[in-house]
User: Fold these one by one.
Assistant:
Number 1:
Amino acid sequence: MNIIPIEYYLVLSAFMFAVGITGVLIRKNAIVVFMCIELMLNSANLALVTFSSYLGNAAGQVFVFFVMTVAAAESAVGLAIIIAIFRNKLTVNIDEINIFKW
Amino acid sequence: MSFEFILFIFFSLIAAVSAVIMITRPNPVMSAIFLIINFFSIAGLYLILHAQFISIVQIIVYAGAIMVLFLFVLMLLNAKSEKDILSGKNKIKIFAVVIAGLVFAQIAYLIFFSSPGKALSPDVAASIKAGTVEQIGKELYTNYLLPFEAAGFLLLASTIGALVLAKKHFD
Amino acid sequence: MIDYIYLTVLLPLIGFLINGIFGHKIKNEKIIGIIGSSTVGVSFLVALASFFQMLSLPVDQRKHVVELFSWLSAGGLNIKFAYLVDQLSIVMALIVTGVGFLIHVYSIGYMHADKSFWRFFAYLNLFIFAMMNLILGDNFVVLFLGWEGVGLCSYLLIGFWYDRKFEKGTTSQAAKKAFVVNRIGDFGFLLGMFLIYLTFDSLNFQEVFSKAELFPISGTVYGFIALFLFIGATGKSAQIPLFVWLPDAMAGPTPVSALIHAATMVTAGVYMVARCSIIFASAPAIMTVIAIVGLLTAFFAATVGLVQNDIKKVLAYSTVSQLGYMFLAMGVGAFSAGIFHVMTHAFFKALLFLGAGSIIHAMHDQQDIQHYGGLKKYMPKTYITFVIAALAISGFPGLSGFFSKDEILWNAYAHGSVLLWAVGILTALMTAFYMFRLLFLTFFGKERFSHDLHPHESPAVMTVPLIILAVLSVVGGYIGLPAVFSGENGNLFESWLSPIFSSAERRLEVYGSHGHFEEILLMMISVAAALGSIYLAYYIYTKKPEIASKTSRKFSKLYRLLLNKYYVDEVYEATIVQPLQKGSEKILWKIADNKIIDGTVNGAASLIDKTAALIRRFQTGFTQFYAFIMMVGIAIALFWIILSF
């Protein structure tokens, strides 16, 4: 029997998610912002695996597998974009990359 | 206090603390290293949850491949440290912490209020079986075959996309 | 052959398509002319075969409906594209295709070396196509299709020489005038159609007429239908008050004037009234209006014709006048007499116009009869045929016009009143006078043209149609020989058409009780009048030309009034056109369009512009700002979940 209540895992997941939000909002380095997004994805993964395990159903873990796949694809493309931007603007500070406006 | 519980406390503390340290380091390389630590501790938590396959994939793919990619990019771009990361002069930082705290409080409130633990009666045997490579492989090749193939296609597309974006010019 | 009647419509359409699409590539005038004429010629043969087949059938089996396809179907409205072949439509079809064919052949000579030769034949074929739809249509909608189609062709052909001057303006202005005036009439016709659908719940001829036959006579509804239809007819057939376009329509090439503005299209109104005879017969008040309008048109147009100097203008007013006669016949309930006059008029008026075209051709586009004279010896064929036509229109005994016109006058007397007859005779007298004034000024007397002009007879391709039409003008009357002369057989033409008009005539109860003696007496009077005025014209214009100028000087006011066509154009210009133009410019354009409509559109655009300028401030371009807003959204969503828990 698991003696660890499911709530503990979920609260840990929520905490990591909140830390990820804070990171996304305060950091200026685009790569670090990216890392914070990875952290948020991981917190969601943790919740998924927790439920999967407590329910004895593999579906949640399959879903985590797909999340990882997408995360890998996303980071590859995202980092390539950051490199492309750096090549043009010589910076990765997202405050200076504000060309998407009126 | 079972051994399991002690392990849980250990890993979750590492995960939480490393996450906080990660977002507060001015040097992006340090951030990356603490994120790797965080990923390792989460892999440990997965093991406690009997998710062997995911745990290993977490280490190999996330901590191994993706984070190495991040470190490579950091190295290539030679990014500078953020000096004023903790000075808190910027109003948006306060707002950020406030909104993140609010979201955390709301989720925590929901978790304890709904208390999913009461409804769930954990079945250790079932959860051990669910986490095996065999079980996940079966799922991936039967029920989730189409998404699995699509994921493979997505990876191919992103590989090509990354190449196209990162390349300087085409001849 | 009756089942193939659609060929008479289809073939001109094919001719139009070939000449219209490939005409400018063919370039060879002969091929274009042969395509244009032969399609109409074959149509005529089909119509002729149908006619003979009909002739071999018993009277009650002569009506055929040839259904082609279902055209419009919406709710209770179901319009079939169908052709009605009966005694009336076959007569009209024969006239249109027959005269049309001759004019097509004539045009090959007349339009020789014109830069848009192919366009002319394409339009002519399109006109025949539309006209056949008008005639053969089995319901008001197909008729209306043809009605609008001939209007369009009329517009295109009047403005055919769009780069030429015409009187004070250009030919395009004349074309526009014809089109706009026709639109007024068409609007009346359309209203009539709506009212028919409202009253009879159908637009099919058979259904509407059989219902109209059964319905008790309730004056006002029939009155309004008849009035609106008649307004449509005044537009198309150039009656008072909408006749002003026809004299201007002479801006078109002469074969067009012959085909459209004399023989066929302008009689569409007469045909329509004859087709709807039962409806008109049910509205006696409107019948009287038609008779009076027709007679007034005939009279006033004839007076204007007396003093005009342009050869085509004289013929144009003569056409208006003769159309007035036809409406007089309709108005007194002599439908078959009216149609008979349509036929004979098609022969001799087409002949007159074609003869005029031949003269104009010879005189190098000179149209003023003051500058003609003595042409008899230069163009003998034209001269002889022209004389025949003039005699026919004047009502010379034994020629076609004599029979048809006398039939109308006799009916006006028998079923109308002596007054109608008297004005009719007066008009006939003037008709004879101005026709022979034209004839004598053109062919007799001194040569008043400059001598470097060398008048010559037209080529055979032009004179042969003239000769055929001349023969028809002579013998065409004998199929409608009055009962007085033909004895027990009665009037052949009338008995052929009688199944069409029998119900209308029953409603009107027009079987008169006047004796043969009266008829012959009236005939004698009109013959005497015609001969007298011919002699008068001969006397004035060949023996003593000074009488004419003296008279015109003596009655100079009257002369000016007539020469300026009663100033009708000027009055319309001042009372209708100018106020409309000014009103459109000052109110509709400057206020309604510029201020209200444009203001609304521009206002909507600037409202969006200003709102967008306000909203775009949210688009800061800072990624973290967007992320922040997203988080706020997540927080709000979570609140909502908590509250709904």
Number 2:
Amino acid sequence: MTEAHVSCDVLVVGGGPAGLTAAQVACESGAKTILLDDNPAFGGQIWRGAKHFRFDNKVLDLISDQTAAQLGTTDEPARLRKMPGWRVVAAPRPGVATAESLSETNSIHFQKLILATGARERFLPFPGWTLPNVMGAGGLQAMVKSGLPIAGKRVVIAGTGPLLLAVAEYLKQCRADVRLIAEQASGSSLFRFGLSLTSHPAKLFQAAMLKARLLTVPYLTDCWVTRAEGKDTLERVCLRQESKSWQLECDYLATGFHLIPNTELAELMGCAIENGCVKVDEDQQTSVPNVYCAGEPTGIGGVEKSVVEGRIAGLAAAGLAQEARKYHAVWRHCARFAGRLNETFRLREELKALSTDETFVCRCEDVTLAQLRECSTWRAAKLHRRCGMGPCQGRICGPAVEFLFGWKPESVRPPVFPARVESLTQADVEEKSS
Amino acid sequence: MSKSFDAVIAGAGIVGTACALELAKAGLCVAVVEPHVVGGGATAAGMGHVVVMDDSEAQFALTHYSQQLWQQLAEELPAFGESEQRGTIWVAADEEEMLEVRRKQAYYNARGVTAEILDAHALAEAEPNLRPGLPGGLFVPGDSVVYPPCVAAHLMRRAQDHGAVLMPGRSVTAIADNGVRLSDGTNVPMGLFVNAAGSWSPELDPGIGVKKRKGHLLITDRYPGFVHHQLVELGYLKSAHSMTSESVAFNAQPRSTGQVLIGSSRQFGAEGAEVEAHMLRRMLLRACEYMPGLARLRTVRTWTGFRAATPDKLPLIGPSPGRENRYLATGHEGLGITTSLGTAKLLADQILKRTPSIPFAPYLPSRSMEHDAHA
């Protein structure tokens, strides 16, 4: 059993755009900083696997100074300790986080904590969604990044949100045969969204870039997958657009219905949640003293919002809240964009009717829609049908069930991720009397 | 004015639903009032270990009687009740506890309960993941495990088949001689009232001496074959008997899913439902002393629950002292799953003036409690 602990001024959990920025800023402001991420590589869902995380004005003109340019480079200040491949599983008492790697457990003592835990894809059940080769859009991208051969494979990308475009672009680069992008959002709302981007020059540029590269891929709005079919593995998908329905042969279906903020660790810490997001003040401080939150957990808003929130949180946690205030105007700009984004990619009611009685909603425990219909609350679904009781701890079925039935998941308890028993027996869970 | 019931039961835990079924089967018109979910309180929080215990003659009588009722129920229980006759192994840590193993075996055998002594070798063979060097244990093959929330739901449905009515999402706010008032303002006329509200029962019947005793449990991911029997350290008795504020004991149970359920902890005076890191730690360190390999298993979930504890560790089954037409079926501490079925029979026997299968006097709420809390 390992008995180790490390300490720091600022602990940053999550190494995506928000966390990387926060860690960099905090340590440059003089704070002894630890940055950890459960992935062996930093960058988050969006930057991982990229050769560099450099910001430049092509992607973003909001952040252009030197510190941003250094992000993710190898010259690491002594004050910054990086812990890739570690995840926080418990928070036994204020100022202590229990973290696990594949083989070790460590207690991290901190003065300030910045939660930059990002977001995950939302999945919705539909007939056939559990077939092999039906996967999350981000998940397929990650598998390709780690070696899944995709060249020449026929891929359909379906769901909602800007992530579909980013994944399509990536898969095209990898020479996949991307046959269709099916976006459930309406064409008119996307048009309005596109117009609003004129006030966000960087976004407009980004969107145009993507579109140019995707020119050869049909992009249909008001369109969604009604079922996936195949004998042992995926062979084709059935699609619908308005009154029209048709089939399309494919090897992979990549689905994702926008993003869900990862708020579990914040909830475990006792942070207040509002409309599914971590509630923060203008310094990115949560309702719990010394705990900050930045990026997608405070509201899905993309890279720019994450970076500026990471910067504000990093400065505030390092005691430079005054300095952070000069970024508030930029933040407001990003927050407006986030509002439009989430409005545009709101799920349409028709998606609630895709599943049949036999469709599994909880894949860990094989709970069907018909079984859930017999329940009246999330707790009843858990206790009487084992919904959400598997190793994903309800991360996948929870948001789907909330969309389908309006049930809110229960409070978060340790461990926030499946954790080794020994990680819950760390010596320093109890306050030392000395 | 709404429909009148012969009996209104507060609480749709395993005790309340068992009582509802028993009374409804006897022809009474029954309503069950449940603020949350059927089987969602201590019923959902416990291990679901159906076990014969010999803490006292009265405890033995009730657990043994109940276990026979469980064997009958098992035949009709749907698969989701996850009923499995795993048997219990009481694990001895030293030679002193082996003496207890021998005493316990003699006690059980004398009363018709099969119990077999395992020596060090047999114990290691039965449970290879226990730490080496343990002197032995007592194997009680008749004990079983169930998944209590689904059993409670099944009992409730059976009661409903016999005409019982479930009133979910509401609690009892006032009790009069001829009716109860619910939190939604409804008045429910009734003949008699049964308090089966577990650790919340003193709110309805103040002064009955039931106290909350908090417990923690943990469940792992799926590791089929890691544990084969319900394992309990013999020191468990010391933990259960201890009236000090905090204690832990080694309990491990194989679920039909291959998951391992790990317990147990006992706390008086802890009112909040939050998982307490220090109790969890103590409980798990204890478990790892007995089964070092547990340390590397992955936990998927932890939770807490509140046992309804009485000073003499026996449940309260019968008329609520000084309150006409009111009955108690509460105070089952850690044995509520096991003794729920016997409780329902004994309660119905009293209400219906039937001849009981075992004497109910030891469980009457009017008995004098030995307040040896800090002995």
